[in-house]
Amino acid sequence: MPYSTYLREGQHVGLRPFRLADGPEFTARVHESRDLHRPWLSPPATIEEYEPYATRLIEGGSRAGFLVCERETGAIAGFVNVNNIVRGAFDCGALGYGAFAHAAGRGLFREALGLVVAYAFTPQDEGGPGLHRLEANIQPGNAASLALVRGAGFRLEGFSPDFLFVEGAWRDHERWAITAEMCGPAGAERAG
C-alpha cells in the first residue's frame, strides 16, 4: 500500500521522512544493493546500525533525511539526506544519497534529487528550510552519481584528495554544488 502523506511527490516517486519502523525494509534493500554501493557508500546494513542513523535524521537539527519511495507502491527506492546543515552566512547543506538496486537505472533518482533540491531552496516562510547552497562530494569513478548531479544543474567546483573515509579507505572526491540562484524559476521546473 502506498504511503499516503509524502512531503513532496513527483510523477514516479514520493519523499517521506525516515521512521524507525522502516529498519527491516531499509536494511534488506541495503543487503540487496551491496554490489551497487561498493565502494561508493556504506549505508546502515543492520537494525543496530539503522536505528541511531535514522534517529539522527528524524531528530533533525543539522540534517534532514528523506526516503525515496516508489509513489504507487510505497516501496523504498533509496534515500537522500541533507547533512551538515550550517545556517547564518553559509545556509548550506551537504547531500548524501543512494539508490537501491531494484530502483537503479530507472530515472527515479533524477526525479527525487530534483524534489529535494526544490524543497531545500524553498524559503522558510513557505515551509522549506530556505538553504542557499547544496553540495555533493562524489568519488571520481562514480559515473552514475556524477551524471545525476550534472543533470540536476550542479557545477564542478573542485577536487578534494583523501576527503572521506568510505569502505575502509580515504577516498578522493570531486566537489559539486548548486545554489538557489542557479535554479531560479527555470531551474525549479527542471529540478521538479
Task: Note down, in words, how this protein is organized.
The protein is of the alpha+beta class. 32% of the residues lie in helices and 32% in strands. It has one domain: Aminopeptidase. The protein contains six helices and eight strands, in the order ββαααβββαβαββα. An eight-stranded mixed beta sheet has the order 1-2-3-4-5-6-8-7, sandwiched between helices. The longest helix has 13 residues. The C terminus is likely disordered.
Topology summary:
Blueprint: E1 8-9, E2 13-16, H1 23-32, H2 34-37, H3 47-59, E3 64-70, E4 76-86, E5 92-99, H4 108-120, E6 133-138, H5 143-151, E7 155-166, E8 169-179, H6 180-191
Parallel strand pairs: 5-6
Antiparallel strand pairs: 1-2, 2-3, 3-4, 4-5, 6-8, 7-8
Summarize this entry quickly.
This protein is α+β, with helices and mostly antiparallel strands and 192 residues long. Helix content is 32%, strand content 32%.
Q: Which features characterize this protein?
A:
single chain; 192 residues; alpha+beta; Aminopeptidase; 8-stranded mixed sheet; 6 helices; 8 strands; 32% helix
How many extended strands? 8
Gap between N and C termini = 24 Å
CATH class: Alpha Beta
User: Main beta sheet, described?
Assistant: 8 strands, mixed
Major sheet: arrangement of strands: 1-2-3-4-5-6-8-7
Overall average pLDDT? 90
Shape: globular
- CATH architecture level-2 label: 3-Layer(aba) Sandwich
User: Would you identify the regions where 5 or more consecutive residues have pLDDT less than 50?
Assistant: 186-192
Q: For this structure, what is the CATH homologous superfamily? A: Gcn5-related N-acetyltransferase (GNAT)
The ordered H/E elements are EEHHHEEEHEHEEH
Percent in helix: 25-40%
